[in-house]
Design a protein that fits this description.
This protein has 9 helices and 10 strands. With about 270 residues, it is α/β, with parallel strands linked by helices. Helix 8 runs parallel beside helix 9. It is globular.
C-alpha cells in the first residue's frame, strides 16, 4: 500500500479524547426532507414521542433516526470544532454524520500517497471541514475541488447562491489554504484545467449519474491502492436511485461492491 512520506503527520493529526463509559450523546435537528405532513406538526410530534421512548444515544436528522448509538462525531472534539466552525446553512447542521464519514475517510487517506479530490463543492464546507479537522492551514495534501459554482446543471438542485460571483465567494473561504485548487466548469471537460496524478481521497456529490460516471471513467485508475471513494447520494432513493443503478453496474464490471451506509452515502476502498 502506498504510504505518505510526511514525517510531520503525527504533529497535525487530531487526538481522540478519553470518553466516559456511562455517557450517552444525543443529536437532533429539525432539518429533514421527504415528509408528506406539509406543516410537519404531526410528524414532529410523533418523532418527539419516539425520542422519549428509545434508549439514549439517539440521532435524528438528515432523514435518519437511530438510537442506542455512540454518535462518535459528538465525542471527537477536534471534529466537532471543525464542523461547528464551518456551518454555512441549515443543511450543514443536519449532515454531521455524513461529514464525519468524510473526516474519518480523510484521516485514513492522509497516510497514503496521492491528492484529495471533491466533485460537487457547492459552498466548500465539505472540503474545509476536512481541512480544519486535519491540520487546517498545515494540511499536507493538495485538495482539488471541481464544480460549476455559478450555476447548477441538475434540474431541481439549484441554490439561490449559485449565480455570477459565487465562485469568487467560495474562493475567499480558502484564501489562507494554498493547498486548495478550485476548478470551475463541467466535468470531465474541466479536467483539462488540471487533475492530480494520483488520488488518495475522492468524494463525489454531483447529484447525477452521468457526471459521476464521467469522473470514475476518467480518474478511477488514478486512485491509489487503499484509497477511498465516497458517493454522497448512493443510498438515497427516489430521484437518486438511478445513480445507484448506474454506479452498481460500473463497479460490478470491475469486481467491486459499494458499501451502502445508513447516512445515504456509498463507500469503496480501492484495491
Amino acid at each position: 500500500m502506498p504510504k505518505n512520506n510526511n514525517k510531520d503527520l503525527d504533529t497535525i493529526l487530531p487526538i481522540l479524547p478519553e470518553i466516559s463509559l456511562d455517557a450517552s450523546m444525543n443529536f437532533s435537528t429539525p432539518v429533514y426532507w421527504g415528509v408528506q405532513d406539509k406543516d410537519r406538526k404531526q410528524f414532529d410530534k410523533l418523532m418527539a414521542e419516539a425520542k422519549s421512548l428509545v434508549t439514549p444515544g439517539f440521532f435524528f436528522g438528515d432523514n435518519l433516526f437511530t438510537w442506542a448509538r455512540n454518535n462518535s462525531f459528538l465525542e471527537d472534539i477536534p471534529f466537532k470544532k471543525a464542523w461547528e466552525a464551518n456551518l454555512a446553512n441549515a443543511s450543514d447542521s443536519a449532515i454531521i454524520w455524513r461529514r464525519y464519514i468524510l473526516a474519518c475517510s480523510a484521516y485514513h487517506c492522509l497516510h497514503l500517497s496521492g491528492d484529495f479530490t471533491e466533485f460537487g463543492v457547492y459552498t466548500g464546507t465539505g472540503i474545509k471541514t476536512v481541512l480544519d479537522y486535519l491540520g487546517g492551514t498545515k494540511f499536507p495534501k493538495t485538495f482539488w475541488g471541481y464544480d460549476t459554482f455559478d450555476s447548477n446543471p441538475v434540474e431541481g438542485h439549484e441554490f439561490s447562491e449559485q449565480k455570477e460571483g459565487f465562485f469568487e465567494k467560495v474562493q475567499t473561504r480558502f484564501q489562507d489554504y494554498p493547498q486548495v485548487k478550485l476548478i470551475k466548469g463541467f466535468v470531465p471537460d474541466s479536467f483539462e484545467l488540471g487533475v492530480p496524478d494520483s488520488i488518495a481521497y475522492m468524494h463525489i456529490d454531483l447529484n447525477n449519474y452521468k457526471g459521476e460516471i464521467a469522473v470514475l471513467d476518467s480518474l478511477f485508475e488514478r486512485v491509489v491502492i487503499g484509497g477511498i471513494i465516497i458517493l454522497d447520494d448512493y443510498e438515497w432513493s427516489g430521484f437518486y436511485r438511478e445513480q445507484k443503478q448506474k454506479e452498481d453496474q460500473w463497479f460490478d464490471k470491475r469486481g467491486y461492491r459499494i458499501f451502502p451506509l445508513p447516512t445515504g452515502q456509498g463507500l469503496i476502498i480501492k484495491r
